[in-house]
Amino acid sequence: MNAPATTEPPVVVIGAGPTGLAAAAHLIDRGITPLVLEAGQAAGAAVREWAHVRLFSPWGEVTDPAAEKLLAPTGWTRPEETAYPSGGDWAEQYLKPLADVLGDTVRFGATVTGVSRAGRGRIVDADRDAQPFSVHYTRADGREERVFAGAVIDASGTWSAPSPAGGNGLPALGEKAAADHITYRVPDLKNRAVRARYTGKRTAVIGSGASAFTALAYLADLATSDGGAGTKAVWVLRRGISGATFGGGAVDQLPARGALGLAAKTAVDDGHADAVTGFRTEAIERDGDGRLVLVGEDGRRLDAVDEVIVLTGFRPQLSFLSEVRLNLDERLQAPVELAPLIDPNVHSCGTVYPHGHRELAHPESGLYLVGMKSYGRAPTFLAMTGYEQVRSVAAALAGDVEAADRVELTLPETGVCGGAGLFDAPEADQASDGGCCATPEPQPVQLTTVAPAAAAAEDAPGGGCCGS
After folding, report:
1. Distance (Å, rounded) from C-alpha 316 to C-alpha 332?
2. What is the pLDDT of residues 366-393, one digit of tens each?
3. CA dist 24 to 20, 67, 377, Å?
4. pTM above the 0.70 mark?
5. If exposure means fewest CB atoms within 10 Å of the residue's CB, which of 144, 179, 295, 355 is most exposed?
């Protein structure tokens, strides 16, 4: 599809994932020319890297209205809205057709390396807002190119920057040297080579969110499959076990999300995973057999493992934005107006208040971070959030402030929403005014003794419907 003819510079959208392509659709709907720059060679390049993982949101919540409007003339129809797509389904059945209909609007193999104002570095004020943006990018063959833009919507996500194993936010000592036995993604155990890597092995899974739940469930399935004997997971948590550790369970308004937590709990209860609580990894060493030993900040040393799966979240890649003026929260690295609404140190359920262009704006007029990248390090993002964000931003860029301000967003509550800092200070008063989203005080329980230093504790009461 050809973008609307105009003499104005395009709005550059960085990233051809779900949010980026939706942004392009909304801009076209507003008569604005977009140009989508995608580093990968296909739409949803990051999504394709977890093609084997099933979403916990159904089709009805992962397609965008403006995108569907563009797709309708092609005969495209949305799959059954109550069915749950895998990442591969999402990419092939929705993102690829959308990119196809956008045509030359999407430029693949284009890695953005820098964004600035034309002729104005970060420190120059004079006539700054009157200058177009200058976007530099590198082609797959190494050629460097530049395009001027009237505005920039950064929907590049956070997939390329997974958080490390280290409990202090830095790679653990020895983590880089052990890279041949560490992955930062949920493994595809349907792949024969990947399956062989974990079959009959002892694997540490570091993390406490939906991805960690998925990995634990996959490893438990492997352990009970033909030829899977000896497969064992060690679940490494930076905090204690509480009634909310496994998410919202049966009361989660996203049932598939709740089921992930229940599957992880089953893996532990059935003995396929041992839980280690209050463990912050400081170093990863090798024993005499070349296996990996996780060493905690408190001096604990876990029994050796063969593989480590690190699923501690993601963080935004901000280096190519160094010449523009951002206003980011010092902790989450999310826009300062948005951060209080999504901070997992405050919000335990993922209930996000309506937000749009105003909360996403920066001192650099016309620049917006949207989608997963807008959440910085917060783990609570859902696709429908990104779609509403870009609808509001496109309306603002079109000058329709009334529509841009009319933001309506209702997210399903409960589930896996918390961040690494949520239970760091259990003595602090972190509860809300009440209701199902009050933060329960963590009460560690000893599920399985896996280290001599692990102390026994009382059984935790069932608590809260909100994730941690």
Report:
1. 9
2. 999 999 999 999 987 889 999 999 999 9
3. 6, 8, 25
4. yes
5. 144
